[in-house]
Amino acid sequence: MKLATIYLLAVLLGATSNAKAQSQTEVLVKEWERAKAYTKEYLDAMPDKDYSLKPTPEMRSFADQFLHLTDANYGFISAVSGQKSPVGFGESEKSADKSKAAVTKAVMDGYDFVIASIQKIPAAQLNDKINLFGKFEITKEQAIYKAFEHQTHHRGQATVYLRLAGVTPPQEKLF
Question: Residue 89: its pLDDT value, please?
């Protein structure tokens, strides 16, 4: 009887753990969907003529900020998910077409790749360790959060670009 009770508890704990992990995957997807929508608001806010705006000559242009963000999203998430990136590392930022339409499409495609890739990661694997960029041994979930932090950093920098162009940045989108 004691053995049956222990076995039942182990099964229940395992089921609870899997439900929690699945729930965490859903949370990650929801956060990336929110980030995609928020980033789209930034891209929409900037006039096409100001996509080449650089606050100083040595800084990236507005377009390049978002193309860099996209390249990093591809790099991080392909490393985490094992999904082959449809864009080579750094290729987005090297694009010759930096128009509003082209940049918006590239960035949105990048977010679609992130979201679809995260959805394919089995929830139980979020705690698996990976070697990110040959330098950092972290869990898949930590790498996803690092990618999220990176895109947030560059979107935040773009606030200054919008202000310099005379545009009011989108309202913060925490939820």
Answer: 84
